[in-house]
Amino acid sequence: QRGIGRLIREGERSFSFEFFPPKDDAGEAQLWQAIRDLEPYHPTFVSVTYGAGGTTRDTTVEITGRIARETSMVPMAHLTCVGHTRAELEAILDAYEGAGVANVLALRGDPREGPRAAWVPTEGGLTYARELVELAAGRFSVGVAAHPGGHPAAESLQRDVEVLREKQAAGAEFAITDMVFRAEDYFSLVERATAVGVDIPILPGIMPILNLGQVKRMAELSGHPVPAEVVARLEQYDGDPAAVRAEGIAMAAELCDALLDGGAPGLHFYTLNRSKATREIFAALRITV
Ligand code: FAD
């Protein structure tokens, strides 16, 4: 199976879709519907997240394995250090390999209280994503997280891109960013990263805002508020959910255009296990199946 690092470097433009392990049968049906709906777009890869502390351990293995076996797509399994010893992490990597998965996104993960809370490593486990990169590199094509506004607990923006450089030195072949809402935030991350010697491709993460309630949740997830001008554009349609949604899709499509025009090597979509919004953005970008 193909390594994503090479696919991004050698391909023209990377498109990828992220899913999460569902909690019940209805969620599972929705996930597979989304996967099947998006397969005709021939994504470079699709990825499946890993729940804190191993809550989705078996499902992440199962879904990525099934994607490898039953679809034409290249899967990537996420893995975090939360709640695991080094030996457990090695066993999970073995399971990914056994399931036919050749790509891993190596992450630290977050404390239960969120990305700003104090991070306490598990005894016998790993402290930083960099160590998980070291554990997986060689066996897998390894990707890592990058943070456009800086990781919320980082000492400084400068230190944060030095961390990215350390993950690259440990063997990471590509990076994917947290949600991007303004192209300039992505490009300033790339500029800071390039200045300290990062030269792996950095894919911007895209999540359209489809309703105003999502704004708060996104801020909690990423540790940064959604930019005020983005919220303002949506709030002008407050009270008209269809218009808010349409504006959210239009803004995401504008953002994707600006990112690709400015030289981003691809786009990574946070799908939330639904295909409709992504298909609408693709239609706006005039990308067809
Ligand atoms: P790290 O690179 O380890 O960095 C964490 C913090 O430590 C940063 O503040 C960094 O500056 C600091 N740091 C790192 N090294 C050092 C050092 N040597 N000295 C001092 N400080 C240091 N979470 C999940 O639970 N499951 C998922 O599936 C998942 N998928 C994700 C996918 C993407 C694309 C992204 C962007 C994030 C994802 N996350 C996921 C969230 C991620 O776990 C959090 O963002 C987490 O807070 C940071 O992870 P990291 O891998 O960037 O950590």
From TrEMBL:
GO terms for molecular function: FAD binding; methylenetetrahydrofolate reductase (NADH) activity. This is Methylenetetrahydrofolate reductase. Pathway: One-carbon metabolism; tetrahydrofolate interconversion; Amino-acid biosynthesis; L-methionine biosynthesis via de novo pathway. Its EC number is 1.5.1.54. Keywords: Amino-acid biosynthesis, FAD, Flavoprotein, Methionine biosynthesis, NAD, Oxidoreductase. It is an enzyme of class 1 (oxidoreductase). NCBIfam families: fadh2. It comes from the Bacteria. Signal peptide: none annotated. GO terms for cellular component: cytosol. It catalyses: (6S)-5-methyl-5,6,7,8-tetrahydrofolate + NAD(+) = (6R)-5,10-methylene-5,6,7,8-tetrahydrofolate + NADH + H(+). Its cofactor is FAD. InterPro entries: FAD-linked_oxidoreductase-like, Mehydrof_redctse-like, MTHF_reductase_bac. Transmembrane segments: none annotated. Gene3D superfamilies: 3.20.20.220. It comes from Nocardioides guangzhouensis. Belongs to the methylenetetrahydrofolate reductase family. GO terms for biological process: methionine biosynthetic process; tetrahydrofolate interconversion.
